[in-house]
Every structure is written in C-alpha cells, then in structure tokens.
Amino acid sequence: MIAALGLVVGIVLGLVLDPQVPAWLQPYLPIAVVAALDAVFGGLRAWLDGLFDDRVFVVSFFSNVVVAALIVFLGDQLGVGSQLSTGVVVVLGVRIFSNVASIRRHLFKA
Amino acid sequence: MSTASQHPDAVPAPPAPDQPPVTGRARLRSAMTLRLSRARLLAGALCLVLGLAVAVQVRQRTSSDLSDLRQSELVGLLSDATDRSDRLDREISDLQRQRDELRTSGDAAAAARSLAQQRLDTLGILAGTTAATGPGVVVKITVPAAETTGLRHAALLLDAVQELRDAGAEAIQIGTARVVADTAFTDDDDGGVTVGDVHAHSPFVITAIGSAQTLASAMDFPDGVVSNVQRAGGATTVAQRASVDVTALQRASSPAYAQPVTPSDEPSQ
Q1: Taking phi first (over 0 means left), then psi (-120 to 50 degrees means alpha), and beta for anything else, what does residue B10 get?
Q2: Residue from B31, B47, B40 nearest A12 by CA
Q3: Res. B266 pLDDT band, cuts 50 70 90
Q4: Which of A26, B14, B125, B210 could make a disulfide contact with B169, Cβ separation 3.0–4.6 Å?
Q5: Cβ B1–A60 below 8 Å, yes or no?
Q6: pLDDT (0 to 100) of residue A86
C-alpha cells in the first residue's frame, strides 16, 4: 500500500513540478525507467513469495538502473548504441513478463 | 529468470507479526494495510522515485522528440532533412524557370497583339475604314458655277488632293467623302464633282490631317492649287488647325484580281 501510494505521489510530483532533465541524462532516462520497473516488479513478486527483503530490493533497484545505463552508454561509445539499447530493453521486458506471470499465478492461481 | 536473481540469500523478510505467511493472496492483503515498517517505507520511497522518473520521461517525450535520440539517429535525421531540402531547392529552381518562360511568352503574345493592333489602326486610317483625328488643315475652295465658266473642277480637286498627299497628308476628306487611293473624281452635269460616290458642290471643304504647316504651304506655292483656283475665277482659304477630325468612312473592299505575294523565303513560325 505504501509502495502504491509512493508511486502515485511520485507521478503527481513529476507532473506538477515538471523538473528539467539535464541533457547528459536525457538519452538514458527511458532505459533507467524500464530497469527500475523491472526491479519493482521483482520486488512485488518477492513480496508475494514471502521472500521480500528491503535491502535486496533497494540494491537491485539501483543496480538495475546503473547497469542498464552503463550498458547503453558503453554501446554509444562503441557505436552499437541502438542495438545494445534494444537488447537491454528486450531482456528487461522478458524479466518483467516472467515476474508478472509469477504474480499472476499468486493472485489468480492460474 | 527466477527469484534467485533477485534474492541471492533468500532470507524471509521479517514481516509484521500477525501476517499469515501462507498464500500469495494473503500476503497481498497484508500489503494493502498501512502498517509502517522499514521495508515498506523503503519500497514506498523507491516507488516514488520510479513514479517521478516515469512522469518526467513521459513529459519529456511529448514535449521534444530530438533530445533523447542518439547521435547516429540524429545524423540520419540530418541527412534526411538535407536530402529533402536539396530536392525542394531543385523543384524551386525548376518552377522559377517555368514561370519565367511563361512570363516572357505571355509578354511576347501581348507585344504581338499590340503590334497587330497598331498596324490595324494605321492601315485603317490609310484605307479610310477608321476615323482619324490630328493636326491639319481645312481648305475651302469656292469656285463659280460651271455653267458660267464652262470649266470642270474634278481635275482641280484631284490636283489639290495630290498636292496634299505629296505634302504628307495621312487622311483626307472632301465634304462627307473620305478620299483614299482608289477614289475617283468625276465631273457632274450640274457643275459639281462626284468624289467616290458622293456629290460635292462648291464650296468644296477639304479636311486633311498631317503637318499643318507643310500642308498649308503645299497649297500656297506658285502655280499651285491657290493660283489655279484664282485662274478659274474662284477663291481658296486655308486654315491651319491643331486638331481636325476626319470622320467620313470608306467601306473596305477586297481586291477581286490582285493577290498578295506570300514571302516564300521566310522561315515558317
């Protein structure tokens, strides 16, 4: 519940405050958002499995974000930026799907 | 892709004391309650960050499309835009050329039309089918009736018209008859003159358009019209005018025998 509240408050704050994203960060923000989303779904699944650990959640959140941004940055430097970012998005999407499937099994027993 | 990647030590978290540990549904229900614990607060904080980032990114996306593209994509966009602008430049120069061509051809047509109109006016004046106005002279020749003198005046009038023509008269009118190249002067039985197909009697009023000075002196030189008329017992008055009207018209007729010579060595248009 607090997590859901936090999410809603964050969205509202983002819309109201409308912070300006610094230019160096702009290309990496979407990838970071998807990575964070993957971490959150993972955390939700962990909670439903009864295996939630807040330390693990925090570490996985930040590590996902940093690693995803690093991979994309490295790809840009090497010249395979768009391919690597596509790969990262695909992998994160697959993980999100599998976490959501687990959550679904918990919730609907199906 | 298992939970092991999320939880390397897989320690069950210390939940709130009365949480039933059994089913996922039950855990979900327990999550819905507003109990405060470090775990929940941390989760809430990170979800807040996530929400913030999502909102900002969506805002960013809808406001500007170019800033979150990578360099290679931007280069591609730039070359596309350059190609398109080159193509449009070529199109512009083509259309400009077409417009200039149309303009000059339009001008040529208008010039040809005005030239043709000028020629029509000139020929009309000479042929007597158009009324004319301009500076000139009005010559009034008064001769006594032919019965008394026995003299015929057609030759006199013809002389006068010839002198005027030699002096550069461009349109000549006697009374109400226009005088053109093929106008005949015939003596009448009653002492008048038939000019073309109009009767004229003394006093004969000749209106001529041309250089007034030149025409007037053409009437006046020794052994000219004035002295001839005097010898015939008549009188002449010559009045120079800044503007005279020759309004009598001659019906246009096509030649019955003469044909125009087509220039055979001109290139065909």
Answers
A1: left
A2: B47
A3: low
A4: B210
A5: no
A6: 92
Count of Cβ atoms closer than 10 Å to residue A109 Cβ: 9
B3 pLDDT band, cuts 50/70/90, is very low
Among chain A residues, CA nearest to B73: A82
Helices (H), chain B: 24-32, 38-63, 71-127, 146-149, 154-166, 212-220, 225-231
Name the residue in chain B with its Cα closest to that of A42: B6
For B44, the closest of A6, A26, A95 (CB atoms) is A6
A6 in Cβ contact with B43 (< 8 Å)? yes
Instruction: Return the pLDDT at B82.
Output: 94
Give the CA dihedral B169, B171, B174, B179, nearest 10 degrees. 100
Alpha-helical (H) ranges within chain A are 2-17, 29-49, 54-78, 81-108
Question: Which among B174, B193, B177 is positioned nearest to B185, based on CA atoms?
Answer: B193
